[in-house]
């Protein structure tokens, strides 16, 4: 397979693998008896959201209000914005709701909840609020036994805004590399968010949504009693980071960067690619379990892995590939194409405004993406 | 200074600092008696190129053909594309030349030189070719004493293409943190490219351009005898990476990311920002000399450094800031704005399609940027 019509570096998406990954996660949600609300932070593409909804997803999750706006414009109305709301962004959320979006917003701050409640009372906007819970990720969120949990619920419940429920994310699941450890984290994630929901209900509040998820925990949770929905995003295309943790196989990675060999530095023992730090991102999340991978796993143009060949270092527009031996120069001449499986799909894809979709072995459609803020 | 009109995260550019940085480098080129061809890979903005040319730059350098096209469309004709040419991109270069661009292209590959020579003979395009030299960076380039140097020169010189000269880049200058070491690398850079030019001239070839540069060596070279032009890019705005190496002061950094506090995770000892891995990039180049900086140095909205406050970790849309003590929560409430000085300006800026330009203390113009490929 030679992609002569594509200028490099550019992003390739294998549609059959994408569809298989979508089915795998939907089956996991079905098995666990919860709804699936995929996180579009990875794909940022309406065409991907269509496939997700068609496969059974109940709605979508986004990481920016620009994504929310883009997906709403493309006909998706049931949207959770799963990054902490701030007062300065409330007007944009209100505009989306006024236009018909069923938007859910989130905070872990009583101060922000107070602003939301006041704004709802003054302007009549029915903000649907999720309270963020920290289940051990140590990113955003309240401890499930915190006083602020009830304080926020009371503030919202007594206003024109709507208390929607609770939400958590076990980002710590990216830090382990075996299924038993993932299962344990999935149970911590469930316990934290269910504990928060239980406390709210005991205090008399209605809790409709009990939401959790990360790709590893969503795939390997054994039980989600008390949970209503799963969120996850990177599973749509996977990456070497996920592969290094045993969450997927290399063959399931649906995303790659098509690049071109631009030089051989034989004195330095390197092949140079036109995919560097900007084209691949400088994410090194696979280092913990597969440090040899560097900035990406090299594949041939047909997608088959080339063992032992990695993007070992990068500068802005150069990927440096340490050759295994001298014969690599003849195998990969200047001008030839190579593909790179990304370390972290979300970070890599963000450098591109579209996917080149491969279906039945040929490049067909271009799918646009929404980047930035 | 509160940027209430700007949605976060977004990119701020301090115009007075930009102009001072441009003047500093132009003065260095003038002192060394060479022309300055700034690298627009950092700014990727026509408005910045205008300031550079007005300050005395002889032309521009770009890192992608998309940049070349963008700057040509904005009236800049003298352009060096300083990443190795490949056969698949030659038609795009030919189109730019046909439209009137004075485009210089580069290779270190005899095979590519042969393709360029043949294409020039067949299509009449007068490609101007620079031969890339490796001065110790171990990225692209031929050793100055290599046989291929004369081989490429002969291939081009005997064709309808034009042998323009030689070019090198001392990327290793980013690996040291004292001026004496930078001076030494600058001399290695000069020696390598002058040696290559001397060999070519001794063999009867005309060498018009002898080009070198990196921000550290361009600022601190003591002598550039035999060199015709300097290239550098990141000096326009500088960053913490350059500051960590002693190349600039923190006060000279002209670029920052405006962000908003989206949460306090007191149990984890963290302030959360809405500027994460995508908004800041995952570049960690400052680690070698300032590991405490993480993903960026925090400043107040007016740009003054907040000592000891850094973006200590990131996820896609979250910047995690380890608080110094409990009083930081009151100092930086949820909803307040903070600025982040980037570790690596080129990588950070690439996530944004425009700069918000600050002049006389207020946000005024928006300058568009050209990203991608």
Question: What does the model show?
Answer:
The structure is a homodimer of 373-residue chains. With 373 residues, chain A is of the alpha/beta class. Chain A has helices at 15-32, 46-54, 65-73, 90-98, 110-123, 147-157, 179-202, 215-220, 240-244, 277-280, 327-331, 345-349, and strands at 10-14, 35-36, 60-62, 78-81, 102-107, 128-133, 162-168, 209-212, 229-230, 255-265, 270-273, 297-299, 305-310, 313-315, 318-322, 337-341, 354-359, 362-368. Chain A has two domains: 15-237, TIM Barrel; 247-368, D-serine dehydratase-like domain (Lyase, Ornithine Decarboxylase, Chain A, domain 1, Beta Barrel), CATH 2.40.37. In chain A, helix 5 packs parallel to helix 6. In chain A, the strands form two sheets. In chain A, strands 1, 10, 11, 12, 13, 14, 15, 16, 17 and 18 form a ten-stranded mixed β-sheet that branches. The mean pLDDT of chain A is 97. Chains A and B meet through helix 5, strand 10 and helix 10 of A and helix 5, strand 10 and helix 10 of B.
């Amino acid at each position: 397979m030679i992609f002569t019509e594509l200028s490099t570096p550019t992003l390739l998406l294998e549609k059959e693998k994408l569809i298989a990954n979508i089915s795998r996660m939907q089956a996991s949600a079905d098995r666990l008896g919860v709804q699936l609300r995929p996180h579009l932070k990875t794909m940022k593409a309406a065409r991907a959201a269509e496939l997700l909804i068609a496969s059974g997803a109940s709605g979508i999750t986004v990481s920016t209000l620009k994504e929310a706006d883009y997906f709403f414009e493309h006909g998706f109305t049931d949207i959770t914005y799963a990054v902490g709301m701030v007062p300065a962004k409330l007007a944009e959320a209100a505009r989306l709701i006024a236009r018909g979006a069923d938007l859910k917003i989130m905070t872990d701050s009583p101060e922000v909840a107070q602003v939301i409640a006041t704004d709802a009372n003054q302007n009549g906007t029915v903000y649907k609020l999720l309270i963020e819970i920290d289940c051990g990720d140590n990113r955003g969120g309240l401890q499930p036994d915190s006083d602020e949990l009830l304080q926020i619920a009371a503030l919202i419940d007594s206003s024109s805004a709507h208390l929607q429920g609770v939400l958590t994310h076990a980002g710590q699941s990216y830090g382990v590399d075996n299924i038993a450890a993932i299962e344990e984290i999935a149970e911590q994630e469930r316990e934290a968010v269910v504990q928060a929901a239980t406390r709210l209900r005991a205090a008399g509040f209605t809790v409709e949504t009990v939401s959790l998820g990360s790709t590893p925990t969503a795939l390997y949770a054994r039980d989600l009693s008390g949970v209503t929905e799963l969120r996850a995003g990177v599973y749509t295309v996977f990456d070497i980071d996920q592969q290094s943790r045993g969450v997927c196989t290399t063959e399931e990675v649906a995303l790659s960067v098509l690049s071109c060999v631009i030089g051989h530095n034989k004195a330095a023992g390197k092949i140079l690619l036109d995919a560097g730090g900007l084209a691949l991102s400088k994410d090194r999340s696979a280092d913990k379990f597969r440090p040899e991978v560097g900035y990406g796993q090299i594949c041939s143009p047909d997608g088959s892995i080339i063992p032992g060949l990695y993007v070992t270092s990068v500068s802005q527009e150069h990927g440096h590939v340490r050759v295994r031996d001298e014969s690599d120069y003849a195998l990969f001449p200047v001008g030839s194409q190579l593909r790179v499986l990304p370390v972290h799909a979300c970070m890599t894809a963000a450098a591109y405004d579209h996917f080149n979709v491969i279906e039945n072995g040929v490049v067909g459609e271009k799918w646009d993406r929404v980047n930035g803020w």
